Amino acid sequence: MLYKKYSPRYVIEIARKLRLEMTEAETLIWSHINNKQIDGFRFRNQHPIGRYIADFYCHDLKLIIEIDGGIHNECKEYDGNRDGYLQAGGYTILLFTNNQVTSEIDSVLETIRTKAREISISSPPPGD
């Protein structure tokens, strides 16, 4: 599979729209990771990568956070293709459910913080 870093225009437009329509879980997690609250790392929300859109993305770490609701039970093939594509590009993906975010936010944030530290210690900054 050819990995393409740049996103088509329509994906960028969809990402802009999604930023205005975040779910309750996305809004909650964004309030905790926005403004460099995770060890000084900057996250972007609804960030296009190729033909996919990451819910949250940290460029310095190549770390993606996906918050999946019930709709994702019906699109496992799509999610598998997305994850394979992103992992082929060197991205690390953390996946949480809406329920995990809303009921276990402290645990979710600790998982993100731990993974961010692990990546920052073991990897040089990305060159792109």
Can you give a write-up of this model?
- The structure is a single chain.
- By secondary structure, the protein is α+β, with helices and mostly antiparallel strands.
- About 45% of the residues lie in helices and about 20% in strands.
- It has five helices and four strands, in the order ααβββαβαα.
- It has helices at about 10-20, 25-35, 75-90, 100-105, 105-120, and strands at about 45-50, 50-60, 65-70, 90-95.
- A four-stranded mixed β-sheet has the order 1-2-3-4, with helices on both faces.
- Strand 1 and strand 2 (about 50-60) form a beta hairpin.
- The longest helix is centred in the C-terminal third of the chain and has 18 residues, at about 105-120.
- The model has no long low-confidence stretch (mean pLDDT about 90).
List key phrases describing it.
5 helices; 128 residues; four-stranded mixed beta sheet; alpha+beta
Mean pLDDT: 88
Series of H and E elements: HHEEEHEHH
Q: Give the helix proportion (percent range).
A: 40-55%
Which regions are unreliable across 5 or more consecutive residues at pLDDT < 50?
none
Gap between N and C termini: 20 Å
Count of distinct strands: 4
Largest sheet composition: 4 strands, mixed
Oligomer: single chain
Described by the principal axes of the CA atoms, the overall outline is globular
- Fraction in beta strands: 15-25%
* Coarse structural class: alpha+beta
Number of helices: 5
Order of neighbouring strands in the sheet with most strands: 1-2-3-4
Alpha carbon gyration radius: 14 Å
